[in-house]
C-alpha cells in the first residue's frame, strides 16, 4: 500500500508496463522450464527403463541358453553312456539265446546284470544332478553339507560350511534356487579361482537370510560382476542374477579388508510362497 | 470433472460480473459496480483456490491453503466494511499473490511425480497455466488500478482484456485435451493423478 501511495501517475505507466512484461516473462519462463524439465526427466526415465529391459532380455537369454546346455548335457549322458551300456547288455542277452553252453550263459547273464546295474547308477546320477535327493528330503543345510563334503573328499580343495541359524526350512522352491546359486558359485570358484579353500556360512538377520562364501583364490568384485552382467559373457553369473531375482534376493561380490580373501554374500528376504514363480 | 465444473462456473461468473459491473458504470452507479467487482474477487479466489486445493496432495500444504484462504476472506470483509466501495487493489493483489503461489506449488508437486506422460498432455496443466498467466499479467494493473484515473484505467484495461483472451484460449486447450483423452484408447493414461478428468 505504501508503494501504491508513493507512486505518482507519471511513474505508473512505466511500473505498470515493465511490471506486466516482467511478470509475463517470468510466468512463461516458469512454464517453459517445467515443460523442458519434465521432458528431460521422462527421457531419463525411459532410458533407464530401456536399460532395464535390455538387462531382462539378457538374463532371459542366459536362462534359456543354460536350459539348453543342461538338456544337451543330459542328452549326451543318455546317448553316450546309457545308450551303449544298454546296447551291450542287449548283445549279451542275445548271445545268451544263441549260445547253449551253460557256463557261458551264466557269464553273459552276469555281465548283462553288471551293465544294467551300471546303467541304473548312471541314470541315478543324472537324476541326482537334476534334483539332489538330500535337498528334497533333508533340506538346504544337508544338501550344502553334502556338496562341500564331496568337494573336500576329492582332495583338491578344503571346503567347509556352517549354518548358524537354519532351524526353520525355507520353501522347497526357494531352497532349490539357493542351492543352485551356491552350486554355480562353487563351480565358478572351482573352475576359475585356483583357491585352496572355500568356506560357507549362513546367518539370519531380521527377515533376511545371509549366505556368505569365502575363498582365497582369484575372485571378482561388484564392479566386475556388474560389468559381466551387462556384457554378453558370464552366462553363469547372469543365471545367478535371474535366479536371485525370483527370490527378490541380492548378491554382493567384494574383497576382504585384508585383501586376502574374496567374499560373496547372498541376501534373501523371507518371502511368501505364492510370490515365487512356480516354474523354477 | 470437478475441475471442469469449477472452470465453467468461473467463466460464467466472470462474464456475468463484467457485464453487470459494466452496465452499472454506464448507468452511473459506481459504488454498486465496485461492490460487484469486489464480490467477484472473492468468487474468483474461492474457485481458483478450490481448483488447486483439489489437485494438490500434500496435506500440510492443504491446511496452509485453508488457513490463508480464511485470512484472505477476513481481510476482504474488513476492507469492504472499513472503506466506501471502490476498486480494492489490495484484495486483488493479495488474491494474485496467493493464487500464483498455489499454482507454483502445484507445478512443483507435479514435476516431482514420476510419470511417463508429458505434463502438457493433461488438461490441468493448461488450466493452471491459464490462471498463472492471467494473474501474473494483470498483477501490476490491478495493484495500481486504485491509484489510476478512470480514463487511464480505461486505457490500460486492454492488458486485462488480452490476459483474459489468453486465459480463455488456454482453458479451451484444456477442454480439447480432455476431449482428446476421452477419445484416446491409451488406457495407461488412467494411471495418472488426473483421474477425475
UniProtKB/TrEMBL annotation, chain A:
<keyword id="KW-0902">Two-component regulatory system</keyword>
<feature type="domain" description="Histidine kinase">
    <location>
        <begin position="73"/>
        <end position="272"/>
    </location>
</feature>
<dbReference type="InterPro" id="IPR011712">
    <property type="entry name" value="Sig_transdc_His_kin_sub3_dim/P"/>
</dbReference>
<dbReference type="InterPro" id="IPR003594">
    <property type="entry name" value="HATPase_dom"/>
</dbReference>
<keyword id="KW-0547">Nucleotide-binding</keyword>
<keyword id="KW-0067">ATP-binding</keyword>
<keyword id="KW-0418">Kinase</keyword>
<keyword id="KW-0472">Membrane</keyword>
<dbReference type="InterPro" id="IPR036890">
    <property type="entry name" value="HATPase_C_sf"/>
</dbReference>
<dbReference type="Pfam" id="PF02518">
    <property type="entry name" value="HATPase_c"/>
</dbReference>
<keyword id="KW-0808">Transferase</keyword>
<keyword id="KW-0812">Transmembrane</keyword>
<dbReference type="InterPro" id="IPR005467">
    <property type="entry name" value="His_kinase_dom"/>
</dbReference>
<keyword id="KW-0597">Phosphoprotein</keyword>
<dbReference type="Pfam" id="PF07730">
    <property type="entry name" value="HisKA_3"/>
</dbReference>
<dbReference type="GO" id="GO:0000155">
    <property type="term" value="F:phosphorelay sensor kinase activity"/>
</dbReference>
<dbReference type="GO" id="GO:0046983">
    <property type="term" value="F:protein dimerization activity"/>
</dbReference>
<dbReference type="GO" id="GO:0005524">
    <property type="term" value="F:ATP binding"/>
</dbReference>
<dbReference type="InterPro" id="IPR050482">
    <property type="entry name" value="Sensor_HK_TwoCompSys"/>
</dbReference>
<dbReference type="GO" id="GO:0016020">
    <property type="term" value="C:membrane"/>
</dbReference>
<feature type="transmembrane region" description="Helical">
    <location>
        <begin position="12"/>
        <end position="36"/>
    </location>
</feature>
<keyword id="KW-1133">Transmembrane helix</keyword>
From TrEMBL, chain B:
<keyword id="KW-1133">Transmembrane helix</keyword>
<feature type="transmembrane region" description="Helical">
    <location>
        <begin position="64"/>
        <end position="81"/>
    </location>
</feature>
<feature type="transmembrane region" description="Helical">
    <location>
        <begin position="155"/>
        <end position="177"/>
    </location>
</feature>
<feature type="transmembrane region" description="Helical">
    <location>
        <begin position="87"/>
        <end position="108"/>
    </location>
</feature>
<keyword id="KW-0472">Membrane</keyword>
<protein>
    <recommendedName>
        <fullName>7TM-DISM receptor extracellular domain-containing protein</fullName>
    </recommendedName>
</protein>
<feature type="transmembrane region" description="Helical">
    <location>
        <begin position="120"/>
        <end position="143"/>
    </location>
</feature>
<feature type="transmembrane region" description="Helical">
    <location>
        <begin position="32"/>
        <end position="52"/>
    </location>
</feature>
<keyword id="KW-0812">Transmembrane</keyword>
Amino acid at each position: 500500500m505504501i508503494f501504491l501511495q508513493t507512486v505518482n501517475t507519471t511513474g505508473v505507466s512505466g511500473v505498470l508496463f515493465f511490471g506486466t512484461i516482467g511478470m509475463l516473462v517470468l510466468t512463461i519462463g516458469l512454464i517453459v522450464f517445467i515443460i523442458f524439465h519434465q521432458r528431460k526427466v521422462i527421457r531419463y526415465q525411459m532410458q533407464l527403463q530401456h536399460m532395464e529391459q535390455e538387462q531382462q532380455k539378457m538374463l532371459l537369454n542366459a536362462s534359456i541358453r543354460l536350459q539348453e546346455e543342461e538338456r544337451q548335457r543330459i542328452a549326451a549322458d543318455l546317448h553316450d553312456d546309457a545308450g551303449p551300456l544298454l546296447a551291450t547288455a542287449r548283445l549279451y542277452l542275445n548271445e545268451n539265446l544263441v549260445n547253449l553252453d551253460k557256463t557261458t550263459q551264466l557269464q553273459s547273464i552276469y555281465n548283462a546284470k553288471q551293465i544294467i546295474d551300471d546303467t541304473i547308477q548312471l541314470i541315478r546320477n543324472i537324476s541326482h544332478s537334476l534334483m539332489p535327493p538330500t535337498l528334497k528330503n533333508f533340506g538346504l543345510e544337508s544338501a550344502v553339507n553334502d556338496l562341500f563334503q564331496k568337494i573336500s573328499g576329492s582332495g583338491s580343495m578344503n571346503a567347509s560350511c556352517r549354518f548358524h541359524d537354519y532351524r526353520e526350512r525355507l520353501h522347497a522352491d526357494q531352497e532349490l534356487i539357493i542351492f543352485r546359486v551356491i552350486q554355480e558359485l562353487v563351480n565358478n570358484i572351482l573352475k576359475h579361482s585356483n583357491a585352496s579353500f572355500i568356506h560357507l556360512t549362513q546367518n539370519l538377520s531380521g527377515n533376511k537370510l545371509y549366505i556368505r562364501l569365502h575363498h582365497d583364490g582369484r575372485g571378482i568384485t561388484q564392479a566386475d560382476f556388474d560389468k559381466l552382467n551387462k556384457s554378453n559373457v558370464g552366462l553363469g553369473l547372469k543365471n545367478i542374477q535371474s535366479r536371485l531375482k525370483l527370490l527378490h534376493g541380492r548378491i554382493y561380490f567384494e574383497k576382504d579388508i585384508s585383501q586376502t580373501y574374496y567374499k560373496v554374500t547372498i541376501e534373501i528376504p523371507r518371502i511368501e510362497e505364492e510370490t515365487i514363480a512356480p516354474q523354477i | 470433472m470437478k475441475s471442469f465444473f469449477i472452470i465453467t462456473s468461473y467463466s460464467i461468473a466472470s462474464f456475468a460480473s463484467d457485464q453487470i459491473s459494466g452496465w452499472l458504470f454506464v448507468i452511473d452507479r459506481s459504488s454498486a459496480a465496485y461492490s460487484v467487482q469486489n464480490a467477484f474477487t472473492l468468487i474468483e479466489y474461492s474457485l481458483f483456490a478450490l481448483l488447486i486445493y483439489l489437485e494438490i496432495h500434500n496435506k500440510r500444504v492443504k491446511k496452509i491453503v485453508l488457513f490463508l484462504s480464511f485470512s484472505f476472506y477476513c481481510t476482504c470483509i474488513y476492507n469492504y466494511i472499513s472503506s466506501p466501495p471502490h476498486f480494492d487493489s489490495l484484495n486483488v493483489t493479495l488474491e494474485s499473490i496467493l493464487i500464483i503461489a498455489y499454482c507454483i506449488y502445484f507445478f512443483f508437486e507435479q514435476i516431482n511425480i514420476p510419470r511417463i506422460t508429458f505434463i502438457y498432455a493433461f488438461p490441468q496443466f493448461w488450466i493452471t497455466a491459464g490462471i498463472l498467466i492471467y494473474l501474473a499479467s494483470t498483477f501490476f494493473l490491478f495493484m495500481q488500478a486504485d491509484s489510476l484515473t478512470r480514463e487511464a484505467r480505461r486505457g490500460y484495461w486492454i492488458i486485462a482484456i488480452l490476459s483474459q483472451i489468453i486465459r480463455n484460449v488456454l482453458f479451451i486447450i484444456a477442454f480439447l485435451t480432455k476431449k482428446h483423452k476421452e477419445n484416446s484408447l491409451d488406457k495407461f493414461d488412467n494411471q495418472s493423478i488426473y483421474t477425475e478428468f
